[in-house]
Design goal:
The chain is mainly beta and 79 residues long. The protein is 10% helix and 46% strand. The radius of gyration is 14 Å and the shape is flat.
């Protein structure tokens, strides 16, 4: 039952405190708005020969990026 509950809660929540990424292991990762410099849409992976696009949070320097793979799509426009 606990596994079903956790699976139903997976995903990304955008709220007043920031962006919360809910994982299966019940540990939430919260990124406050003050830490986010910008949001971009980028290719984050290739699956089955098709590019996978998702929003990416830019947190600091160029190397400090956090892709939101739960919101990924094969269409850049949909991501």
């Amino acid at each position: 039952m606990a596994g079903i509950w956790r699976a139903l809660r997976l995903g990304v929540v955008i709220g007043g405190e920031g962006v919360r990424v809910r994982g299966f292991d019940s540990r939430d990762r919260v990124t406050p708005w003050s830490s986010i410099q910008s949001v971009d849409c980028m290719q984050i992976d290739v699956r089955g020969g098709l590019p996978l696009y998702a929003p990416v949070l830019r947190l600091g320097g160029d190397a400090d990026a956090m892709p939101l793979s739960a919101l990924g799509s094969y269409s850049r426009q949909d991501a």
